Amino acid sequence: MKNVLLEKIEKEPLSHKEALELFQNADLLDLALMAKKIKFLKSGNKVYFTINKHINYTNICSSKCLMCAYYRNEDDKDAYTMSFEQVEKELSNIEDLHEVHIVGALNPKLDFSYYITLLETVKKATPNANIKAFTAAEIDFFSKISSLSHKEVLEKLKAAGLQTMPGGGAEVFSERVRKKLYPKKIGFEEWAQIHALAHSMGIKSNATLLFGHIETKEEIIDHLFKLRNLQAQTKGFLCFVPLLFHPENTIFEKHIQKQSAVFQLKVLAISRIILDNFDHIKAYWVMMSDSISQVGLHFGADDIDGTIEKENIFHAAGATSPSGMARQKIVEMVKNAGFVPVERDALYNELKVYP
Ligand code: V47
């Protein structure tokens, strides 16, 4: 039987309570149909991807979030910080790079000047690629170590080459969860304030949700409504990326199992339904696996990220997907799912349609 709430969304936005009811009780395929309908109104039968490269410049972190498998202490033998020569080398020999995605950790030994030189190095090595760099948690950390305001930090980074920002550091906007898992990290107020500031300076950004750990369904819905309200104010978000928690190599590896494909697909669909003011929803293949993200395109996603080459954060936590994917393989993956692949730049300008 068709859920009356699914009929209602066609006419007006759902309330928080109604969205929760849908998330908890709607039939999976009803959710998929509605999410896919919204996706078609936004981007037709197109699915976007890009040619990108991840630079994870350091894994030494003072935040020590309990859900993170990537961070190291300074004296751990596998702790690292990339030199600028290493960064340059990593960026050589990649053809047609459209985006360099830079995220690291809150390394107390690095001076703010490191980040400026890092951006300048990347810009020089790949002048045509968009630099998508630093989560709001990193921006806040840079402000603390440099005694500059968030605005001054963003101005200096922008002048050095930063063009867009990734959506990380959001985790789940719940004080209950923050206190338990990432008490040293910024909460919703600061995260929202930094993204709003970036948007006001012409820096577009993404938003994420980390799900599948100790959060409740109510907290997921609350997170999505907070993002919807923020987007209504700033209109600066490009894309929403739900990130599946990977428990391996964290304190949760024996207690929490990776969420099922069904739950991942439900999160994608409910995100597409609630975030009606976001143009794009990403089925991040690294985190979901290529086959689940392919199905995710039928649950409202219209973006599949990119070639990546090479991802570290989810692989530290046990992701079994490859750490990069060839352009042709992504094209085939999207085509096999029944959609038209579109190669995009970081701002979703269409560079090549693969009919
Ligand atoms: O904020 C940490 C997450 C994020 C784990 O903007 C974990 O397009 C799963 O921001 N299991 C950083 N996730 C990654 C990020 C990102 C990734 C892809 C695309 C975009 C985008 C942004 O990684 C962190 C945190 O939420 N994370 N530990 C873990 N064990």
TrEMBL record:
Gene name per UniProt: mqnE
Enzyme class: transferase
Residue stretches making up the Radical SAM core domain: 47-279
Keywords: 4Fe-4S, Iron, Iron-sulfur, Menaquinone biosynthesis, Metal-binding, S-adenosyl-L-methionine, Transferase
Pathway where this protein functions: Quinol/quinone metabolism; menaquinone biosynthesis
Highest classification ranks of the organism: Bacteria, Pseudomonadati, Campylobacterota, Desulfurellia, Desulfurellales
GO biological process, one term: menaquinone biosynthetic process
Protein's name in the database: Aminodeoxyfutalosine synthase
EC number from the UniProt entry: 2.5.1.120
SMART domains assigned: Elp3 (SM00729)
Necessary cofactors: [4Fe-4S] cluster
Function: Radical SAM enzyme that catalyzes the addition of the adenosyl radical to the double bond of 3-[(1-carboxyvinyl)oxy]benzoate, leading to aminodeoxyfutalosine (AFL), a key intermediate in the formation of menaquinone (MK, vitamin K2) from chorismate.
